[in-house]
Automatic annotation (TrEMBL):
Keywords on record: NADP, Oxidoreductase
Pfam name, any one: Nitroreductase
Designated name of the protein: Nitroreductase domain-containing protein
Native species: Acinetobacter beijerinckii CIP 110307
Domain of life: Bacteria
Keyword GTP-binding attributed: no
InterPro entries named in the record: NfsB-like, Nitroreductase, Nitroreductase-like
Annotated PANTHER family: NAD(P)H NITROREDUCTASE YDGI-RELATED (PTHR43673), NADH DEHYDROGENASE_NAD(P)H NITROREDUCTASE XCC3605-RELATED (PTHR43673:SF10)
Family membership noted in the UniProt record: Belongs to the nitroreductase family.
Positions of the Nitroreductase domain: 8-193
Signal peptide stretch: none
One Gene Ontology MF term: oxidoreductase activity
Length: 217
């Protein structure tokens, strides 16, 4: 689909048809698109928990109780649901792991280039940690870039999606032992195909107008 048409027709799906599943190869393509998301200094501070089976989706839905119950059926009836997690910290070991990956992928022509990348990336992390004092927010910003990329890609692929911040963070973090893994849940995305009963599919989109959101110099 054309990019503008995709931006205008993709929407936050409120009800899924549980009978319809995303073909395996197409879902794997979406995961690969997630893996290729851009991030500041290629810090990639994310981890994605992927649920396809009913049992896995039920584990996620267990974190959608109380105030968040309105999101439960979206997860249960989706084809796939992904928990977008963000690291709680950036360790020296993780920075070294990234650097090794860069090297494996052929990014460095010599040791000087490698050291340059090491210094730049570490410099940014220390800047956000010690000066701006918002390393967690900076990391989570990167995770949300991956969210945007996935939502748009799903639209292009003709797959419906729902980003969800409406979930119990404590319950989800506990269910998947995220703290022990140095992670926290940031946002959940359900993917699949809309149900005919989805009221939101028929509503017009609403956005602020051009003159409000753009300053053209
Ligand atoms: C980060 C984020 C969190 C959201 N959380 C929820 C949610 O918990 N439940 C829900 O039904 N919709 C959720 N939405 C959907 C938004 O309400 C929706 O994207 C917005 O109203 C714009 O409408 P559209 O996506 O249909 O164009 C969320 C969207 C974003 C981007």
């Amino acid at each position: 689909m054309d990019t503008l048409a995709t931006a205008k027709t993709r929407y936050a799906t409120k009800a899924y048809d549980a009978e319809k599943k995303i073909p395996h190869a197409q879902f794997e393509k979406l995961l690969e698109i997630l893996r290729f998301s851009p991030s500041s200094v290629n810090i990639q501070p994310w981890h994605f928990i992927v649920a396809e089976t009913d049992a896995a989706k039920q584990r996620i839905a267990a974190g959608l109780t109380g105030n968040y119950i309105y999101n439960s059926a979206k997860v249960l009836y989706s084809s796939h649901t992904i928990i977008f997690c963000t690291r709680t910290d950036i360790s020296a070991e993780y920075l070294e792991q990234l650097l090794q990956q860069d090297e494996l992928n052929g990014r460095f022509k010599d040791e000087t280039a490698k050291q340059g990348q090491r210094d730049t990336r570490q410099g940014y992390v220390e800047f956000y940690r010690n000066e701006l004092k918002n390393l967690p927010a900076w990391m989570e910003n990167q995770t949300y870039l991956a969210l945007g990329q996935l939502l748009f890609a799903a639209g292009l692929e003709g797959i419906d999606a729902t980003p969800m911040e409406g979930f119990d963070r404590d319950l989800i973090n506990q269910e998947f032992d995220l703290a022990e893994k140095g992670l926290k849940a940031s946002v959940i995305v359900s993917l699949g195909y809309r149900s005919e009963t989805d009221f939101n599919a028929k509503l017009p989109k609403s956005r602020l107008t051009d003159d409000v959101i753009f300053t053209r110099l």
